[in-house]
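Exercise: predict the fold of this chain.
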Amino acid sequence: MGNTGYIALSRQTGLLKEMQLVANNIANISTTGFRKEGVVFAEYVQALDNGNPSISMAYANARATYQNQGSVTQTGNPFDMAIEGDGFFLVQTPQGEMLTRAGSFTPNADGELVTPDGYRLLDNGGAPIFVPPDAQSMAISSDGTLSVDGRPLAQIGIYAPTNPSELAHRNGVLFAAPSDVQPVEDSKILQGFLEESNVNPIAEVARMIEVQRAYEFGQTLLNKEDERIRNVLQTLGK
């Protein structure tokens, strides 16, 4: 395979990765707190031997996570929370502390607020949040202060990484929490609301069509290049 084929193949590989991410975005349109992802394309330049010109290929191993706010829907559930502004909830998982925008929580058997997967929600001091089982009422103020029967018990933490580029998507709606996360003070918590996915379905379907057409064009180019090489070999073999 010549340089033309390698260049086209590197582009095809990147387009295939982007198609997979676009498909995953579409599949999570209705997932609470989901963040849209995309592929970051870069140029990889490799020097060649014997004084030949350098060769440039596509490089698409990096992901970009879009942090624009999703729409907020009222649920009426007092344990549901949505963040208005920047930042994430901090939850404790078996793999360590994780960040998430999915604010659907319920008390477990011990009275701790947990995600649907059983991960404990942490307060602004990194401790689990406990709600007494005999509580008559629970209220959460915009600054995250949780009060039970009129008595403040804890303050729900909102955190963000110091360097947003270090935010790494793990699975579903969870992100690895870098060691240098810091509290966010300007954001608000809305009780009885959930933030929806920030995926725009029309834009994602349009992007899927665009990527598919680009991939088909690249495949046509590879087929023509393969045909050209075969014709050259057949001509030289006569």
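Check your answer against the key: DSSP finds two helices and 18 strands in the chain.
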